[in-house]
Amino acid sequence: HAADAHRTDLMTITRYVLNEQSKYPESRGDFSILLNHIVLGCKFVCSVVNKGEEQKKLDVLSNEVFVKALVSSGRTCILVSEEDEEATFVEPSRRGRYCVVFDPLDGSSNIDCGVSIGTIFGIYMVKDDHEPTLDDVLQPGKNMLAAGYCMYGSSCTFVLSTGTGVNGFTLDPSLGEFILTHPDIKIPKKGKIYSVNEGNAKNWDGPTAKYVEKCKYPQDGSSAKSLRYIGSMVADVHRTLLYGGIFLYPADKKSPNGKLRVLYEVFPMSFLMEQAGGQAFTGKQRALDLVPTKIHERSPVFLGSYDEVEEIKALYAAEEKKA
Ligand code: P6P
């Protein structure tokens, strides 16, 4: 009757987070309440994305839903959204201890053609009770307590880490609950896929160009890697997490800091990759060690299977030696 037990023992994301919380007896459940409000926002976005409303409204609508859900949770003090130029400072009466950085609808330019898109988020704790300032959110990614994404595709998948590994949950529309479907995700140590926008190749620096060359024309007799590039970070990262390989958005001559944003794209995905046994590198350092100075700062990123990122790191280190 194992199947029945599984069928009746519903491990919802709420229950999973409560289990996690029970490991911290002193916790007041704030994190569980915060996460439930993020999950609520994702369920809303999932419903409107699937209704096929046109793109221009959806990213604004999604942002409003997340900001309102997070403020009303009473557990946040600073919000940074890809959609808002300035950070949102929650008024004192509704203030909590968490800073949430998020992209409410990353890859939204892909909506009209039905490509999977997603919400990406990261959660910091405010250092101590003082008047919150931007410094409370300009923390290195390694200080994040949790990070995750929700992918709106053929199914709605919520991938989360609270610092003790990575778990994937799938929305059961009939229940309106995210159910644990991918327990303890580990990224394969190596991978056969590389994921990059080859259209930028003419502007790449040496190490990136050398690495991609090795993927296409391996010198060690191994078979060439396959190129898979969806152009929607959540979809490309989700595939990388499950199948292995490497996702790269390098710097190039036109964009010396690459394109992806540190706080709500690079950090959450790097956090997940490390929690799943992979790595994330900026070309200069471990991605999670980066200390951002602006809330919409960009960084190059190479993330995925442990061994693949090691190769990139070696090529950049060799370049460093030459300099
Ligand atoms: P490019 C989508 O616009 C996005 O921010 C990420 O989701 C995606 O990985 C990247 O940009 C794609 O950028 O320059 O390859 O189109």
Structure notes:
This protein is an alpha+beta fold and 323 residues long. Helix content is 33%, strand content 22%. It has eight helices and 13 strands. An eight-stranded mixed β-sheet has the order 2-1-3-4-5-6-7-8, with helices on both faces. The chain has a five-stranded mixed β-sheet with strand order 10-9-11-13-12, sandwiched between helices. Strand 1 and strand 2 (88-89) form a beta hairpin. The protein is globular, with a radius of gyration of 20 Å. The mean pLDDT is 94. It catalyses: beta-D-fructose 1,6-bisphosphate + H2O = beta-D-fructose 6-phosphate + phosphate.
Highlighted features:
single chain; 323 residues; alpha+beta; eight-stranded mixed β-sheet; 13 strands; 22% strand; binds 6-O-phosphono-alpha-D-fructofuranose
Summarize the structure.
This protein is α+β, with helices and mostly antiparallel strands and 323 residues long. It contains eight helices and 13 strands. Strands 2-1-3-4-5-6-7-8 form an eight-stranded mixed β-sheet, sandwiched between helices.
Q: Identify low-pLDDT runs.
A: none
Query: What is the CA–CA distance across the termini?
Result: 64 Å
The H-and-E topology, N to C, reads as: HHHHEEEEEEEEEHEHEHEEH
Work out the strand percent.
Answer: 15-25%
- The structural class is alpha+beta
- Per DSSP, the total helix count is 8
- Ligand roster: 6-O-phosphono-alpha-D-fructofuranose
Largest sheet: 8 strands, mixed
What's the number of extended β-strand segments? 13
User: In order across it, which strands form the biggest sheet?
Assistant: 2-1-3-4-5-6-7-8
What number is the mean pLDDT? 94
CA-based gyration radius = 20 Å
Q: Which word captures the global form?
A: globular
Helix content bin: 25-40%
Quaternary structure type: single chain
Family: Belongs to the FBPase class 1 family.
Main location: cytoplasm
Cofactor: Mg(2+)
Keywords: Carbohydrate metabolism, Cytoplasm, Hydrolase, Magnesium, Metal-binding
